[in-house]
Amino acid sequence: MNVRPVFGRSIARLMALALVPASFAGISAVSASANKPAAVTSSCLSGPVKHVIYLQFDNTHFNRDRPNVASDLEQMPHLLNFLKSNGTLFTNDHTILISHTAGGILSSLTGLYPDRQGQTVSNSYDFYPPSKLPRFTSSFKYWTDAVDPALDTLPNMITDGQKNTPAPWVPYTRAGCDFGGVATANIELENANTNASGDITRVFHPGSPEFIEASANPRLGQTDFVGIAIHCSQAADSKCSGNPNAKPDPLKDEPGGYLGYNALYGAKYVDPAITGGNPCVNDTAGQPITDPDQNCGFPGFDGMLAKNTLGYVEQMQTAGVPITYGYISDAHDIHVPNVATDAYDSHANGPGEADFKGQLKAYDDAFAAFFQHLGTSGINKSNTLFVVTVDEGDHFAGGIGTPQPDGSLAYTHTPCATLSACPTNQIGEVNANINGLLATQFPDPARPGFDIHFDDAPAFYVNTQPGRTDPGVRKLERDVSGLTSLDPYIRDGSGNVQTVSLTAALADPVEELALHMINTDPNRTPTFTWFANPDFFFQTTPTNCGGNPCVNPKFAWNHGDIQTEIATTWVGLVGPGIKSSGIDSTTWTDHTNLRPTILTLAGLKDDYTNDGRVLVEALQTSATPHALVAHRETVLRLGAAYEQVNASFGQFSLNTLTASTHALRSPDETVYNSIENSIASLTSQRDALASQIKAALNAAAFDGQALNEQQAKAWIDKAQSLIDQAHALATS
Prior knowledge:
The chain is built from 20 helices and 31 strands. By secondary structure, it is an alpha+beta fold. Helix 9 packs parallel to helix 10, helix 17 runs antiparallel to helix 19 and helix 17 runs parallel beside helix 20.
C-alpha cells in the first residue's frame, strides 16, 4: 500500500494563477516585444515551413461541459478564430489509453501508441521489482531516465526491443534546427531530485555545480534546471555553439545513432541564451517569468499559464530557435502561488464559475498578444506551422451551478461527507478507498494483496504478479466489477441521490494488448485495469472521512477513463500547406497522426514507423506527398479503416473492451476463457493487419512508394471484417 505524493495524482500537471508584480529587486519589467528584432527566417528547413510552433493544452475543451456555458475554446476567441479562420480545426480527435497527461502528450510527440512509447499507464504507474511486490513511480522523468536505477533499469520511455523510445527532437536537430522545449512532458528535466533516480543526478551527475546547487536548495534547483530546455543542432549558429553551459545530449538507442549533440538544460542557461544575456524571459504581458520566490526561471508546471508558456515560445522563436514545443496548464483549476512553500494552493472551479471565466479571459489575452508579437517579428501563417491541441478531455465531477447576478455560476466548495445530503451545486470528485469498499460489499479474508494506480480508472497490480487466470485474481475482478456507491451527481426526479454501479469496463492483459496497454517491460503491465465511474477517484488509503466515500472539492475534473467527454479532443493546424477548412467535425483522428503530419509539412522523417497517418484531409494538394495524392480516395478510406481497427478508441478496441468486461465479470470460467481466446485471436489478426497498413502508409508518405490499390482495398475489407467480428463478440 503506497501513500501517493502530490505529483502522483491523476491530474498531475495543473495550472496556477500567477500573481507576479510588475517589477522585482534587480528585475525590470519591459514590453514583451521590446528589444526583439525581426526573427531571422530559419534556413534549417528547406520547404515553405520555416518555423514549427507546437502547443499542447492540459484538459481544455472544444465541446461544452454544460449546455448553457460557453466551452473553453469559445471563451478564447483569439485562439479559436485563428485556428478556424486560417486553417483546419479537427474536433473529432481522440486521445489514447490510459487517457492521462503523460500518455496523451507523448503519443502526440512520437506518433506512437503507449505500447511503443512506454507510458501504458500514467501519470504514475507501478512496476514489479524482484520482490514481486509492486512499487510506485512517476511517468514524468527525463527522456533517457530509467524506471528505477536499482530495481528496474529499463527506460521509463521504452519502445520495441526494450530500447529507449526515439526522441522527438532528433529529425529537427539532425536537419540543423535547434529545438526548444517548454514544460512539455519528458523532453526537459522533470524534477530537481539529487537521489539516485533524480534528473539532476542522471543529467548533470554528482559533484557538478548543478548537483551542488540543487542539493543545497531544491526549490532554486527546480527553477533553474527543470521544465525548460533547448536541444541543439550541430550548426555553427546553434545556441549551444561556443556556450560553456551546453551539456551532452546522449541518446544511446536512437535509430541511426546520435553522437556529438548538446543541449541547454534549464532556464538558468536557456534564458540568457535567448535574451542576449538577461536572466529573465518575459511573459506575453511583459512581466518577468519567475517562480513563487520571484527568482527568474521556470515557475513550476502548475505555473505554466498561457502567458508564461507563450512568452517562452515567443522568446525562443524570435531568438532563432525555430522549433518549439510548449505545454499550457489547464484553466479549470485555480492555483495561487505560495511563497512559503514555493508551490501552489489550488482548488477546482466548475463550468461558468467566475474565476474559471476570468482565467480563460486571461488565456485569451495571452494568445492575442502572442500572435501580435510573432507577427511583428515576421513569424506568421505564411512561414510557420502552428499546431495546437490538448492531451485529453475531462469529466466534470460536480452538480449544477447556481446562477449569480453577474451571469456566472456558483458551486459549493466545502467537503461533503454524507453523499446523500450533498447540495445540488456541490463540486468535487468522490474519493473512495477501494479496500474499504471491497471489505464492506464483498468481504473476503483470502483476497490477495494489491496496489493500484490512484485514479478514476485504476490499474491493479496484485502482489507476486500472478497470472490472469489465478483464482484469486479472477475473484478480485468479479468483486471489483460489482461495487456500487451513492453518487451525489446522479439524482431521481425527486432530487434523491442514487446508487450507481462503479464499473464502466474491465481489461486484463488480453484486452490491454488490444488497447495498446501492454508494456515492452513485462514488469509494468497491470494485472487488470478497472475503467470506473468518472465521478469517483479511487485510492488504497483512507479518505478524509474515514472508510466512507466523500467529496473532495479540490479536484473535480477527472480523466484516465473511457467516457466520450474524456476520449474526445481537438487539434488545430495553421500554416503553409494547410487547407483553410475551418471546423472539421467529421474526420475521425487521434493523437498519433500529429507526428507524421508535422514531419511531412516540415520535409523531415523519422527513422521508425509511426503508428499514425498523415492527415491528408487537412493538406493542400501541393503539400501532400505524391504517393498519397495518386490514390487519394483509397488513401482516405484506408486511413479511416486503419484508425477504427487500430486506435485506442476505435470501434475494434471499444467492442473488444465490451467483450472483455463480460468475460471478467463472468462467474463461469468456460465463458471467460472462450471470450478471452476470441479477443486474443482477433487482436493477433488486428496487429498483423495494422502492421501492414501503417508500413504502407508510412512508405507512401515518406519514401514515395505508391500504394497498391487492390491490396489497399483488401486491407479495408479485412479491417471491416475484424471490426464486425469484434462487434459480434461484444453483443453475443
